[in-house]
Amino acid sequence: MYLHLRQLMRIITVVAFVFAVNVGFAKELSLAHFLGPKSPNNLVFKAFAEKLAEVSNGEMSVNMFPGGSLNSVPPRQYSILLNGVADIVFALPGYTADLFPKTNVLNYPDICVRAIDCTRALLNAQHELEKEFDAKILAIWASSAPVLITRDKPVRAFEDLQGMKIRVTSKHNVPFVEALNASAVAQPVTVIHQNLTNGVIDAITVPPSAIRSFRLHEPANYVTTYFPGSGFAFVLLMNQQVYSSLTERQKGWVDTASGDWLSLFAGRTFGNADDTGLEFARDAGVEIVELTKSERTRFGTAIQPTLDAILQQPVGDKTVKEIIQLMKQ
User: How far is 58 from 322, CA to CA, in rounded Å?
Assistant: First the structure.
C-alpha cells in the first residue's frame, strides 16, 4: 500500500512537472489591426492564427486586437510595432510612403491589374523590398488596381476629372492624379466614407473590395472601373526582437504559418473580395461606369510623360524602373 502510494505520488509529480513546462513554454502573440469585421484581411489573420496553432499543437496562439483597439491611427501601425505595443501588426506601406519607397512602386500604373498578379509582383521583388522593413515580414500581398468612386458626378471621360479633389492611398499616386487635371489628397481608408459623404473630397481611388468593407456604396452614386494605377501593398509584420527571442522550434512554427503560401492566400482572398465589392455596389443601385477604350487611351496619354520621368527616379540604391523590372520578372 505504502509502495503504491509512493509510486502514485511520483507519477503525479512527473505529470505536474510536464504540465508546468508546457504552460511555461506556451506563447501568445498579439496582433493589432485597425479594420472592421467585414474586411477580407480578417481571413488572412485567421488563416495565420489557425495555422500557427495547428503546427505548434496549441503551444503558440494569436490574440487579435481589431478595430484600432491598440492604435486608432492607421499610419502609426509600423511605429507601434517598433515600440513593442504589439507583437504583430497589419500595415499599409502607402500610409508611410517615405519609409517604403521600393514597396510602393507597386502603386505605379501598368504593373498589374488583378490582386493575385500584384501579389506575385511583390513576391518577385521581396528579397529587395524586405530591406526596407525593420521587422520580419510574415506576409506581403496586394489589392487589385483601383476604381474611382464619386458621389455627385460620374467620370465617363477625361474632362470629367477636371478640378476634382481625389483621395489617394499614397503620395506615389499624386503625380498621376495631377496629370489628369485633378488634385490629390492622401487619406487613410478609415475616414473616406465620412469625407465623401460631407463633400470634403469629390472622389476616392480605392480597391473595389473597400466598397463593402467600408460601406462606400452609401455615399457613392457612381463607380468608374478604371483609374491609372496598379495594386496597393499590404503587410503583416512581426517585431524582429520578439521573433529573435523565440526558440528555434518556435521560429520554425512561425515560419511554417507564414511566408509565400499566406501571401498568395491573401492575394486570392483579395481578388475574390474585389469582385464581390463591385457586385455589392451594383446591387445597391450604384451605377458602374466602364470607360471606353478610347477614353482609357486618353488617360494613358495624359500620364505617360509623368510615368516616363518617374521611371528614372532613384529609390534607395535602385531606380523605379529597376524595381518594376524585378516585380514583372
Answer: 43
